[in-house]
Amino acid sequence: ALLPLLTPENGKQLESALKTAAAGKSQVLDLSPLERSAQVLELSVNLISGGKHPHLYVLARDVSERLLLQRSLEEKLQETILLNRVIAATTADLTPTALFKIVCSELAQHMQMPQALAALLRDDNETLEVIAEYLPEGKESLLKETVPLDRLPPLKDALVSPQILTVNDIRESPNREFWSVVADELGAISFLAAPLTARGHVIGFLEL
Length: 208
Known about the structure:
The protein is an alpha+beta fold. Helices cover 37% and strands 27% of the residues. The strands form 2 sheets. Strands 6-5-4-9-8-7 form a 6-stranded antiparallel sheet. It has a 3-stranded antiparallel sheet with strand order 1-2-3, covered by helices on one side. A hairpin with a 5-residue loop joins strand 4 (116-121) and strand 5 (127-134). Helix 2 packs antiparallel against helix 3 (96-110). The longest helix has 28 residues, at 64-91. The chain starts with 7 loop residues before the first helix and ends with a strand.
């Protein structure tokens, strides 16, 4: 009765579990019903060997909420670990470049992003300079590269009204001509820039 409710792949897993359990080895597996992919059923397959006719029985439990809670706790744990690493870096005797290099690395790996940059404003407040980076192996370094803010009006606006800027797909953005700078220099399709502030003023951006 369960097979019609499962995806073909999950149906094969259940059939395999039934054969293994019939040989005397109990099985436990998690499967998702075909019509409710967010739901997860834990199936326990066991052999009852008493009497002349052995039987298999399958105990099904809905463990969707438990798995969601488990994933939530794992995410919070990873966020706590990330925060502790960043705090440890900020309390160490490091130069700003070394500090932001650690931040870029930790943040990119935590968010599973291929690259991260830290760019600070030069004294003229009109130019961003890359001071730290985390890049894929083999990609050319962008350290010391500069970008005039006039070429990126959304970032220039963020100096006045600090906010996290996100672009899901640069190719489809209304400001495509501006973000092409990012696409050309970083080889990126999506973009996120978080303002870095000090004493109430934006001093640069952390870019993913």
